[in-house]
Amino acid sequence: MRNILSVAVAALLMSGAADAAETMTGKELTTLLGHGKNLILGGPGKGYAGSLSLSADGKGKGQIKLDSGDVIPIEGVWAIKKDRFCRTWKGGRDAGKQICESWVKTGPKSVEAMVGKKDLGTNSWN
Questions:
Q1: Which terminus of the chain, N or C, has fewer Cβ atoms within 10 Å?
Q2: 101: Cα separation from own chain's centroid
Q3: Is position 12 within any domain?
Q4: What is the pLDDT of residues 54-70, one digit of tens each?
C-alpha cells in the first residue's frame, strides 16, 4: 500500500512539473509570432471556428463563426508581455480590455489559451 501511495504522489508531482513546462515562454511566443502568424481558432467540437492574422507590427485581424451561425469580427492590437500573449480587441465580449493569455501547448502546433484556470479556446497554426 505504501508503495502504491508513493508512486501516486510521485506521478502527481511529475504531472504538475510537466504542466508548467507545457506553457509557452515569452521567448517561444516571440519566436512563433514575432514575424507575424496566421492562427486557426477553435475547430470541430469547440463551438466556433475562425482565423486570426497577427502582423509583426502588433496588429491582429480576423473573425470567428459560432456554431449558431453568428460571426464575430476580431480586430485590435497584441504584444508579448513576459510569458503571455496580451491582446486588446475592439469588439466581442472583451471589447477594449487588455486580456493576457498563457498559451499551454497541446501539440507541436496547437495551444489552449488560458487566463488563470479559465480556458478561452484553441489556437493552432500550420
A1: N
A2: 6
A3: no
A4: 999 999 999 999 999 99
